[in-house]
UniProtKB/TrEMBL annotation:
UniProt GO cellular component terms: cytoplasm; glycine cleavage complex
PROSITE patterns: BIOTINYL_LIPOYL, LIPOYL
InterPro entries (UniProt xref): 2-oxoA_DH_lipoyl-BS (IPR003016), Biotin_lipoyl (IPR000089), GCV_H (IPR002930), GCV_H/Fam206 (IPR033753), Single_hybrid_motif (IPR011053)
Organism: Periweissella fabalis
Pfam families cross-referenced by the UniProt entry: GCV_H
Protein known as: Glycine cleavage system protein H
Family to which the UniProt record says this protein belongs: Belongs to the GcvH family.
Length: 98
């Protein structure tokens, strides 16, 4: 997947939060299901990061960074429509740490 699909925010502690860009949300439509890795999962660049089902598409997203999953957006798992929100406080997927 291209970088256009993701926004990323790197913290001072080296953690990287990954979420969906406005363009991605527009192209997906309303999100109805999201599958995210478990906390503790070690990912290499290109590994499966998320599977998202929406009104316009079903997509598998690969991770743009390597690291260990230290947080997942559990709200998005329970209420996938939150990923359609433009707020980075809501539409993030995971946090990785090297």
């Amino acid at each position: 997947m291209s970088e256009k699909w993701y926004w990323t925010v790197e913290g001072a502690d080296g953690r990287v939060r990954i979420g969906l860009t406005d363009q991605t949300r527009t192209e997906l439509g309303d999100v109805s299901f999201v599958d995210l890795p478990k906390i503790g999962t070690v990912l290499a660049i290109g590994d499966a990061l998320a599977s998202i089902e929406a009104t316009k598409a079903v997509l598998d997203f690969d991770t743009p960074f390597a690291g260990t999953v230290v947080a997942v957006n559990t709200v998005a798992i329970d209420k996938p429509s939150i990923l359609s929100n433009s707020s980075q406080d809501d539409n993030w997927l995971v946090v990785l740490k090297n």
